[in-house]
Design brief:
By secondary structure, the protein is mostly beta strands. It is built from one helix and 13 strands.
């Protein structure tokens, strides 16, 4: 049986259920709830997400965060002060923020890269805020076009 792809603006959500200080390629979750931010990380980590339908070249993928249950889900598009996350960044061997890889690994899988720190605490290239600092949740949104 062939899976249908998203068409005409359909939306699907996926996330990784692991919050451990390791990269993870096997812990998948689907749905609007997402997963809590990771705990403290000792290095950059990758978390694989698996969609129920194939990722197409016409789909749009975006990482979204929710700061708490009364906040809206927002895309990670840039620096958000000390209240969220920003796009994945690398400076002098230190990594910050989060982002989705630009190419699917399989027809349904893609990796989300998490920097060691949620955001820089003043100076890039130095220590930043631990992922456990900001609280909140994350997910990947796939929109069909």
């Amino acid at each position: 049986m062939t899976q249908k792809s998203l068409k005409d603006g359909g939306i699907e959500y996926a996330y990784n259920t692991s919050t451990s200080d390791t990269s993870d390629t096997t812990s998948f979750g689907n749905g609007v709830t997402g997963n809590t931010f990771l705990g403290a990380l000792t290095a950059a980590r990758s978390k694989r997400v698996r969609f129920l339908t194939p990722i197409l070249a016409t789909d749009t993928l975006s990482v979204e965060i929710q700061l708490d249950s009364s906040s809206p889900w927002v895309p990670v598009i840039g620096f958000d002060g000390n209240i969220g996350a920003h796009l994945y960044a690398y400076q002098n061997g230190t990594t910050y923020g989060m982002g989705v890889r630009s190419a699917a690994l399989t027809s349904t899988d893609i990796d989300v890269q998490f920097g060691q720190y949620q955001w820089a605490s003043g100076t890039y290239g130095a220590a930043g805020a631990a992922w456990s600092t900001g609280g909140g949740r994350w997910r990947v949104k796939k929109s069909g076009n």
